[in-house]
Specification:
Elements: H1 2-31, H2 51-76, E1 103-110, E2 114-116, E3 122-123, E4 129-132, E5 139-150, E6 157-163, E7 168-169, E8 175-177, E9 183-186, E10 196-205, E11 211-223
Antiparallel strand pairs: 1-11, 2-11, 3-10, 4-10, 5-9, 5-11, 6-7, 6-8, 6-10
């Protein structure tokens, strides 16, 4: 192993002398006056080491450093690993925790029942109740659920809520069925006027068949 170390050090010294000689020659050549009596524009003399000279110097230095690294590896018997650039981790986005709102459902039973054979809207006696939007904080949606049937199954039975305080039908409350069996049908979203209003159930039949309203309730969805 001693002869290998001596040989390696000898090669290193020779390379070092060669590099120094090459660099010195390049620097001297770049600074030496031209032997061809070239005319320098603007009567100015170029000074220092030009771009080609600097590039050659850098290349020589790089080769010299590489020689040292390889020589060190030869002497010690180590293997130089290839270093891969470490990928920068992606910036983590800040996650803002939010408190999800909790939804709850409440039911309000509508009193009474009734039937009709008329084609026009008819108030069913005993179905009156008061309703105030202000009694339900966090109110999101309201639906009308009615248990209906058509006595002989001939035509269509209808039901809806009627705002007696304002003399108008409650928007979105109309439901219907053509079944002879008791059927629970649900309306779309209801739109009540503000304040305390007197609400009633109305029913009608598309034909002379009897529309039967058995029961009803409000499904109220709240969010807190």
């Amino acid at each position: 192993m001693n002869w290998q170390k001596k040989l390696a050090w000898g090669i290193l010294i020779i390379d070092l002398l060669a590099v120094n000689a090459g660099v010195g020659h390049l620097v001297y050549k770049s600074q030496a006056p031209s032997t061809n009596n070239q005319i320098i524009t603007n009567n100015q003399e170029e000074k220092g080491c030009g771009e080609e000279c600097l590039a050659a110097v850098r290349e020589a230095v790089d080769n010299y450093q590489l020689s040292i690294v390889n020589l060190s590896a030869t002497i010690t018997g180590t293997v130089i690993p290839t270093v891969k650039p470490t990928a920068k981790p992606a910036a983590q986005q800040a996650v803002t925790a939010t408190n999800p709102k909790i939804r709850s459902v409440q039911y309000v039973t509508i009193p009474g029942n009734g039937s009709t054979v008329t084609n026009g809207w008819t108030v069913l006696s005993g179905t009156e109740f008061y309703f105030d939007l202000g009694d339900y904080p966090g109110l999101k949606e309201i639906y009308f659920e009615a248990n209906l049937k058509l006595f002989n199954g001939n035509g269509i039975a209808y039901a809806r809520l009627y705002d007696s305080t304002h003399g108008i039908g409650v928007q979105g409350s109309e439901v219907q069925t053509s079944s002879q069996a008791n059927t629970v049908v649900e309306s779309g979203k209801l739109s009540f006027w503000g304040g305390k209003n007197l609400i009633k159930v109305q029913s009608r039949s598309l034909t002379a068949d009897t529309a039967v309203y058995n029961s009803g309730r409000l499904r109220i969805v709240m969010e807190n």
